[in-house]
Design goal:
alpha/beta, 8-stranded mixed β-sheet, 6-stranded parallel β-sheet, 14 helices, 38% helix
Length: 378
């Protein structure tokens, strides 16, 4: 007898071609869960104002509910609520990716009685006014959920809301496909840009915004010896960071690479000696970039945030962890690794092994499927 397909409704703010960390994950779920026998439909909102549209993206049916615009980083859509009610009726499990206040409200108003899974990617950190309105809906969602997914234990411990729902929480890490990284053609992408060929290559990539801590990294680099820093990314602080580097006479030690296409970004990971994620607040909830550096055998310097960040690369095992916003400690960590090639190699080897054993995407998707279906409870 043929096994009935598990019908999953994936719910999020947006979907590809919208670019974002959560959007990439939802796309991963929507495209890979069917390989395990699931039927997946996706409900999101339009990025722009306009009427509801249905389309298909790489074989995935996506309904983009009409939107009246975005407020407090959240789309406003009345049609989303009615579409949620209709689509949920045909689902065995509704998988809601949060924070997304509109989805909490839609679930409350839908009358849906089936299984509910919540992927808790992060608390709402900055929008305190929104939390005043949102908290009752959020509490309803957490109480209503059959299971709550977090990427690390740090997501639970560092949350202001999850600890009381700890018994519902299950760890489902974010993953990458190691083969997609290791198959990229190696190139001296950073080496050929060095001012001094003997320098140790330190790499950072990310949006140049306040919580990423690139300003702390630049401040630290004034005290770093025998290293050159490569910064890949763009953002609102780009000019400010470049001006700071110029004022401090760091032009020969700091290289701004701008936006890097995927292949060049992977070549940069593979060619660096040390990867740094200097984020300063828990808006940085995980840091997939850590996995991308680790799979190439690179030690990571990260920060001791109350989030998942220090649970990805572990202090003393796959890299070093320093207090956030502490330029002196960050400089000391960089100098320590820069001066000890054997330590870099040891930590880097452990890093690659950790990704393969705990963060392989195929393994992650299989665990997600079983938890969504209620086949695995621990």
């Amino acid at each position: 007898m043929m096994k009935k397909k598990l019908r999953i409704l994936e719910v999020n703010k947006a979907y590809y071609p919208h670019i974002g960390g959560i959007e990439s994950l939802v796309r991963q779920y929507a495209e890979e869960l069917p390989e395990l026998g699931a039927q997946v439909d996706v409900l999101v909102c339009r990025d722009d104002r306009g009427k509801t549209i249905c389309d298909e993206v790489n074989g995935v049916k996506v309904l983009r509910a009409g939107s009246l615009g975005t407020y407090f980083s959240c789309p406003l859509s009345l049609s989303f609520i009615s579409r949620f009610r209709k689509m949920a009726k045909n689902a065995d499990v509704v998988h809601i990716n949060v924070p997304f206040p509109l989805a909490d409200a839609a679930l409350l108003l839908s009358g849906y009685k089936g299984r509910v899974a919540v992927s808790w990617h992060s608390d709402i950190v900055k929008q305190e006014k929104l939390m005043l309105l949102y908290k009752p809906f959020m509490n309803f969602l957490l109480k209503r959920a059959d299971v709550i997914f977090t990427a690390t234990k740090g997501h639970i411990d560092g949350s202001a809301y999850l600890p009381e729902f700890r018994e519902k929480c299950r760890i489902v890490p974010y993953g990458i496909k190691p083969a997609e990284y290791l198959s990229v053609k190696r190139a001296p992408f950073l080496t050929e840009k060095l001012s001094d060929s003997s320098s140790v290559k330190v790499f950072f990539t990310g949006r140049l915004v306040y919580y990423k801590g690139a300003d702390v990294l630049l401040k630290a680099f004034s005290s770093v010896k025998n290293c050159e820093l490569f910064i890949a990314g763009t953002g609102e602080l780009e000019d400010q960071l470049k001006n700071y580097a110029k004022r401090r006479g760091l032009e020969n030690k700091v290289h701004f690479l701008g936006f890097l296409p995927d292949e060049q970004l992977k070549q940069a990971y593979a060619d660096c000696d040390i990867f740094v994620l200097p984020s300063v607040v828990r808006s940085e909830a995980f840091g997939i970039v850590q996995l991308e550096a680790m799979i190439y055998g690179k030690p990571v310097i990260n920060t001791r945030l109350p989030s998942g960040v220090p649970h990805v690369s572990v202090h003393g095992k796959t890299g070093l962890t320093v207090p956030p916003s502490d330029a002196k400690a960050l400089a000391a960590a960089i100098n320590r690794l820069a001066a000890d090639k054997r330590l870099r190699e040891k930590l880097g080897k452990n890093a690659a092994e950790r990704v393969k054993s705990r963060f392989d995407e195929d393994m992650v998707i299989r665990r997600l499927y079983k938890l969504l279906a209620g086949e695995e409870t621990s």
